[in-house]
C-alpha cells in the first residue's frame, strides 16, 4: 500500500511545479522569487556586515 508520488508545489503560488521551471510553476514565479532576493525580502541570518570603521580597527590591530 504505497502512496502516489506527490507533485511538488511552487513556493510562490502553491500550484504544481512545471518541469522546465522547477521548483517554480512558471517563469513568472521564478522572476517574482528573484525580485524578492534582489529587494532584500529574503535574508540569511548571520553577523552584521563590517563597515568602514570596522575596517580601520582591523587595520590598526594588524599593525600591532
Give the tags.
mainly alpha; 2 helices; elongated; Znf_NHR/GATA; DNA topoisomerase type II (double strand cut, ATP-hydrolyzing) inhibitor activity; DNA_gyrase_inhibitor_YacG; DNA gyrase inhibitor YacG
Structure explained in plain terms:
Zn(2+) binds at residues 10, 13, 25, 29. This protein is mainly α and 64 residues long. It has a domain at 9-44. Helix content is 39%, strand content 0%. The chain has helices at residues 27-39, 52-63. The longest helix has 13 residues, at 27-39.
In short:
The chain is mainly alpha-helical and 64 residues long. It contains two helices and no strands.
Q: What is the arithmetic mean of pLDDT?
A: 84
Summarize the amount of helix as a percent range. Answer: 25-40%
Q: What is the total tally of β strands?
A: 0
Tell me the radius of gyration: 21 Å
What's the order of the H and E elements?
HH
Gap from first CA to last CA = 70 Å
Number of helices: 2
- Which blocks of ≥5 consecutive residues have pLDDT under 50? none
Strand content: under 5%
Q: What oligomeric state do these chains adopt?
A: single chain
Shape: elongated
Q: How would you classify the helix and strand content by structural class?
A: mainly alpha
* Major sheet details: none
